[in-house]
């Protein structure tokens, strides 16, 4: 995981991973800032109260300014967290327009996946895609509820009978990734084995592969 303290090779990370990591980093900053403020305010009141008590004062009374400051800081943190969440989700709702696009239809079933390409070719339990391409998966189910997830891209989509959901991702590194695609909805006795492999090819390799896998 890439955090504020680990900035290794950001260029190779998929944009969906960078998106959610930026949201996580924002929440981390807000959480740490809120904790520092809360503890700082608490110790301020403790020390201020002790100082006034030792000099015969009345101690801390009221705290109107402190309460107002607390309200402002907390409100700011909540608003910033809300904006970060909205921006993160908005990014996932709109696939990149500056890259080639490949749209694939996915039919989930107990307990596997069928991937149908624009030319009609259907692959069972193996998804082959080109690198540096916006891949859009339109997902549905043939039987019960499923949930298609690809952890390496931080994306998920519900697979519901009679309905369609969608997700997108951009693979930045070629390779073969066994069990990269999984079901995240308990769907029966074979749920744990409902996986699929992911193969990422260079664009030229994918063009060759695609040309040799016609309609079936």
Automatic annotation (TrEMBL):
A single GO cellular-component term on record? membrane
> Which PROSITE patterns has this protein been placed in?
COX2, COX2_CUA
Q: Name one GO biological process term.
A: ATP synthesis coupled electron transport
Q: Where in the cell is it found?
A: Membrane
Question: What is the residue range of the signal peptide feature?
Answer: none
Q: Which residues form a coiled coil?
A: none
Recorded GO terms, molecular function?
copper ion binding; cytochrome-c oxidase activity
The Cytochrome oxidase subunit II copper A binding domain, residue ranges: 99-212
Which keywords does UniProt give here? Copper, Electron transport, Membrane, Metal-binding, Transmembrane, Transmembrane helix, Transport
Q: Which Pfam families match?
A: COX2
Q: Tell me the protein's name.
A: Cytochrome oxidase subunit II copper A binding domain-containing protein
- Species annotation: Candidatus Marsarchaeota G2 archaeon ECH_B_2
């Amino acid at each position: 995981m890439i955090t504020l303290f680990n900035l290794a090779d950001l260029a190779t990370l998929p944009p969906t991973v960078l998106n959610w990591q930026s949201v996580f980093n924002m929440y981390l900053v807000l959480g740490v800032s809120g904790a520092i403020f809360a503890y700082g305010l608490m110790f301020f009141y403790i020390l201020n109260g002790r100082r006034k008590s030792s000099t015969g004062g009345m101690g801390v009374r009221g705290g109107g300014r402190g309460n107002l400051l607390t309200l402002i800081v907390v409100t700011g943190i909540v608003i910033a967290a809300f904006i970060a969440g909205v921006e993160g989700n908005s990014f996932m709702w709109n696939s990149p327009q500056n890259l080639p696009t490949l749209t694939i239809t996915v039919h989930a079933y107990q307990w596997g996946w069928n991937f149908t390409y624009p030319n009609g070719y259907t692959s069972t339990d193996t998804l082959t895609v080109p690198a540096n391409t916006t891949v859009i998966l339109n997902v549905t189910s043939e039987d019960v509820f499923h949930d298609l997830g690809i952890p390496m891209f931080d994306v998920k989509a519900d697979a519901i009978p009679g309905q369609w959901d969608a997700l997108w991702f951009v693979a930045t590194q070629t390779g073969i990734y066994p069990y990269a695609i999984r079901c995240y909805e308990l769907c029966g006795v074979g749920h744990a084995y409902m996986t699929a492999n992911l193969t990422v090819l260079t664009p030229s390799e994918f063009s060759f592969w695609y040309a040799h896998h016609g309609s079936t």
